[in-house]
Amino acid sequence: MKFIKWLLALVVTLILLVTVYLTVFFDPNDFKPEIVDAVKKQTGRELVIADDLSWTFFPVIGINLGGVSLSNPEGFTPKAMLEVNKAVAEVALMPLFSQQIEIAELSLDGATINLVTRKNGTSSFDGLSGDNSKKAATPAAETSSNAKLNDINIGGISITNTQINMIDEAKKQTQVFTLKSFTLGEFALEQFAPIAFEFSATMPDMTVSSEGKGELKLSRDFTQLVVNGLKIDTVVEGESIPNKKLETSISLATQIALDKQQLSVDIAQLTAASITAAGKVGVNYATKIPQINADFQLGDIDLDTLLPKTEPAAATEQAPAASTPAVEPDLSALKQLDVKLKLTVKSIKVANLSTQNWLMDVGIKNGVLDLTKLNADLYQGKLLVSAQVDARQAVASYQFDKKVTGVQIRPLLKDAADVDLLAGTANFDVKGKGKSLLPEQLKKNLLANGHFDINDGALYGVNIPQMIRSAHAKLKGDLSPETKEERKTDFSSLTGSFSLDNGVATNPDLAMSSPLLRLAGKGTANLLTEALDYRLTTSLVNSLKGQGGSDKDALAGIDIPLAITGTFQKPEYALDTKALLNNQLKEETDKAKEKLKDSLLKKLGGF
After folding, report:
1. By percentage, how much of the chain surpasses pLDDT 90?
2. Euclidean distance between the first and the last CA atom of the chain, given in angstroms as a whole number
3. Contact 136/172 with Cβ under 8 angstroms?
4. What's the pLDDT tens digit per position in 98-123?
5. Quick one: 465 exposed, middle or buried, by C-beta within 10 A (0-12, 13-18, 19+)?
6. How many contiguous H segments (helices) and E segments (strands) does the chain have?
7. What is the pLDDT of residues 378-405, one digit of tens each?
8. What are the start-end ranges of the E strands in 17-79?
9. What is the rounded (10 degree) CA torsion for 438, 443, 445, 450?
């Protein structure tokens, strides 16, 4: 028992002697000139330590310093690259003897970092590495690899009022990043410790402010890092931001396998503007190209509220802006991605077009984006798409296969293109391929083939039976005013196939059937100019009574030519009255020939 007391007394005496020695005979400020000279020789920079260095002793050993600055290269503005108001580092003394680190306090306050890039390309980092940095790194690395720690305990880490100024003299831009605060509470291995931060950034086109809090845990063998309950709220403001302001909030938990270099994130809730989402992300960053697997579930998305609103054109005439040649989008970044994404969305509205129940599977690997499946509900019908974009060449190529079944075509056309042209239940399929993603080149280079059929519908903007009846009346000399009737032609089916080449869709076999008439023809639709050019043949197969005609129509069975011209937005319909007259005269001539033939047969005794 006395031995233990004497041993403790000896240890305390030794600590006191060391303390007295360091205090009386060893002044850290004596080494300030040597430190300044060493930094000057190594980097060519000026290091200033304005405040006196001071020791802290038992039960902790540490050092306090302040008024520290490191200069930028000569001729740079600002002159200082780094300025530190105050820094404190304190480590518990006794645990060091048993290979345990107990950090009583680590704090940094009022640090300012000025990173300048000049017009000639030189920057604040030039010359910092020094000639001996690589040589010095090797033994240090070897030493650290052999060191082993039994435990780490941190009383707290605090970083406050730290600012990074990124100055680009060529662009005359300054970006300011401010870490207002970062705190780590009492930390020990295998135990959760609280963390919190507050951050802001000011950039030329936007400002960002963010704050968050959660807790983290590090395993004793340093192979597992876990972050739980991390909640981050962010506000982004700027002219380029949808509605000039975007507020986001995310709650997540993450696990990092440091030994296997794998990361998993579980996002409990993500909100951005009016969009809500949840999902999981897995990352394997041990490979040359990190492998990413993601699965997200999103709610309702109204992209129309996020897209910038178009301003009305100014009344005053302005000189046309100089046109710049279009450039293919740079998709080379796809070569550095290995991603698998599964996405479900409750609904999406864009350009006033509404869809529901999205299910999408996407893969990106070796510069190829592969949309293996996209299913969605579309205006009481179904949409099924598969597609691929190959970005391995400078000009990307693509191919797709699209099917639409049971869609109500009238509300779809009205919402998508503000066109009230067609109604009915539509089925549509098309396969295509092309090269170039520029809008105009997309239309020119696309090669596609497809088929469509529309049932129980109507053609709006024209009443074909009424047009025929009116033309027939005028041919007979009846110039009375036309009766006002709805400009609509009902049909039971409308079918056809089409091909697309050089921006022109060609339809060789348009066919429409209804109880009153038959319509067949062919034509083209130019996607570049939106021009229509159709030549159709219409024939009445029954009475027009259902649409205002008599019980027996004189035009039944006569082929009547019909032309459709104009544009997608304003189609124009016209009857070829000359052809109509010729057809009717032919019909009358044929009837006269039949009468003459019958009369001759009677006179000849029935032969």
Report:
1. 44
2. 151
3. no
4. 555 566 778 889 999 999 999 998 99
5. buried
6. 7, 30
7. 999 999 999 999 999 989 999 999 999 9
8. 47-49, 54-56, 60-71
9. 140
Distance CA 345, CA 277 (A): 9
According to DSSP, residue 531 is labeled: B
Task: Give me the half-sphere count of Cα atoms (radius 13 Å) on the Cβ side of residue 337.
Answer: 18
Which residue, among 417, 245, 396, 271, has the nearest Cα to 331 in the 3D structure?
396
The Cα–Cα gap between 548 and 393 comes to 62
CA distance 494 to 482: 28
Strands 488-501 and 447-460 come out as antiparallel
Q: What is the dihedral of CA 221, 223, 229, 234, to 10 degrees?
A: 130
Which 3-state string (H, E, C) describes 244-312?
HEEEEEEEEEEEEECCCCEEEEEEEEEEECCEEEEEEEEEECCCCCCEEEEEEEEEEEEHHHCCCCCCC
In 3D space, the residue among 517, 462, 465 whose CA is nearest the CA of residue 491 turns out to be 517
- In the structure encoding, which two tokens stand for residue 59, read together? 């039960």
What amino acid is encoded at 463 in this protein?
N
Half-sphere exposure of 193 (CA within 13 A, CB side): 19
555 by DSSP, 3-state: which?
Answer: coil
Report the predicted TM-score, pTM, of the whole model to 2 decimal places: 0.73
Question: Is residue 341 very low, low, confident or very high in pLDDT (cuts 50, 70, 90)?
Answer: very high
Per-residue buried b or exposed e for 155-166, using 16+ beta carbons within 10 Å of the residue's own CB: bbbebbebbebb
Tokens of 166: 């990124």
Q: Which residues of 531-558 are buried (b: 16+ CB within 10 A; e: fewer)?
A: ebebebbbbbeebbeebebeeebbbeeb
Distance CA 295, CA 278 (A): 9
| Tokens at 15, concatenated | 């600590």
Q: Does 564 have pLDDT greater than 80? A: yes
Burial of residue 415 (CB within 10 Å: 0-12, 13-18, 19+) is middle
Residues facing 515 on adjacent strands: none
Q: Exposure string (b/e) for 384-398, b if CB count within 10 Å is 16 or more?
A: eebbbbbbeeeebbb
CA 195/CA 217 separation, integer angstroms:
10
